[in-house]
Write a structure and sequence with these properties.
- The chain is mostly helical.
- The protein is about 50% helix and about 0% strand.
- Strands 1-2 form a two-stranded antiparallel ribbon.
- The longest helix has 28 residues, at about 5-30.
- The chain is globular, with a radius of gyration of 26 Å.
C-alpha cells in the first residue's frame, strides 16, 4: 500500500469516526423521550362530589359526539375538571372514542362501563375493584334505559330491557330484538345515549358515596351452582373467568347434566 493511499485511508477513518460521534450525540438528543420532561401525577387523582343531573345530561349529549364510552367517560372527567381540577385536565378525552359499540363495534364490554371503570380506577384507589364490580353488577340487572332523560331526550317512554351481561352485544341485541329496532336506528342511538347517561350517573353516585365515607360493597357472585364448580381458586375446576350470570343467554344449555 502506498504512503498516499495509507494516508487517505487514515484520513477517511478519522473523518468517519468524527461523523459517527456527531450522529450518536445528535441522535441521542433527537430520541430523548419527552415523557421524561413531563410531570406525572400519581394515582389516585382528587375527587369532588358531583351533581348527578349535570353528569347525566352531559353524558347523553356527548354520546352523539363519539359514542358511549366517550359519552360516559368525558362527562365524568369534564365535570371533575370543573370541580377537582388538577390532573383530570391532563387526560386526552378523545382516547375514549375507541370504546363505542363495545370497542369499535366489536360488541365486547359496554363502552359506558369501560369509560366509567377508567374514571373509577383513576380516583378510587384501593376501593376501585369493589366499586367497579358493584357498577358492573348493577348494569347487568338494571332495566335500561331509565326515564330520567325524557325531558331532553329524542324519544320518551322507551321500552326497557335487562342485559344480564356487561357486554354491548347482549345489551343492545336484546333491546333491539325486544323493541324491533335496528342497531343503526335513531331509536337505538337514543337508547344508548340514555345508557351512557344512566351509567355516568350511577358512577357518580357510587363515587359520591365512597368519598362521603358511606360506601359498602354489595357485589355477590351470581349463579352459585355454576361458580361453585367453575369460578375461583376454591372451586372444583377453577376453569372459568367471569362474574356475571352464566345461564341467562350464553350457557342456558348447561343448567343440568354437565361436568
Amino acid at each position: 500500500m502506498s504512503e498516499q493511499t495509507d494516508a487517505s485511508r487514515r484520513k477517511f477513518l478519522v473523518g468517519a469516526g468524527i461523523a459517527a460521534g456527531a450522529v450518536a450525540v445528535t441522535g441521542a438528543g433527537l430520541i430523548k423521550p419527552k415523557s421524561a420532561e413531563a410531570a406525572y401525577v400519581a394515582l389516585p387523582w382528587p375527587y369532588v362530589i358531583l351533581d348527578l343531573a349535570v353528569v347525566k345530561r352531559r353524558a347523553y349529549d356527548k354520546y352523539y359526539l363519539s359514542g358511549c364510552m366517550y359519552g360516559t367517560g368525558s362527562a365524568l372527567i369534564e365535570t371533575l375538571v370543573e370541580t377537582a381540577g388538577g390532573a383530570w385536565d391532563s387526560f386526552p378525552q378523545d382516547m375514549f372514542k375507541y370504546g363505542g359499540g363495545g370497542v369499535y363495534s366489536w360488541g365486547t364490554t359496554c363502552g359506558a362501563l369501560n369509560g366509567a371503570a377508567w374514571v373509577i380506577q383513576a380516583c378510587a384507589g384501593a376501593n376501585a375493584a369493589n366499586v367497579i364490580s358493584d357498577l358492573f353488577q348493577w348494569y347487568c340487572n338494571y332495566p335500561f334505559p331509565s326515564r330520567d332523560h325524557d325531558a331532553y331526550a329524542v324519544y320518551t317512554r322507551v321500552k326497557t330491557t335487562v342485559a344480564n351481561s356487561p357486554l354491548c352485544h347482549a345489551s343492545t341485541s336484546n333491546w333491539c330484538f325486544t323493541t324491533k329496532n335496528k342497531i343503526n336506528s335513531a331509536q337505538k342511538k337514543d337508547r344508548c345515549a340514555k345508557v351512557a347517561a344512566d351509567v355516568a350517573g350511577k358512577t357518580a353516585e357510587l363515587l359520591n358515596t365512597l368519598f362521603a365515607g358511606g360506601y359498602v360493597p354489595v357485589f355477590v357472585q351470581p349463579d352459585p351452582t355454576c361458580s361453585g364448580c367453575h369460578v375461583g381458586p376454591t372451586s372444583t375446576y377453577d376453569n372459568v373467568q367471569m362474574k356475571s350470570t352464566c345461564t341467562t343467554y350464553c350457557h342456558d344449555d348447561k343448567k343440568t347434566g354437565h361436568y
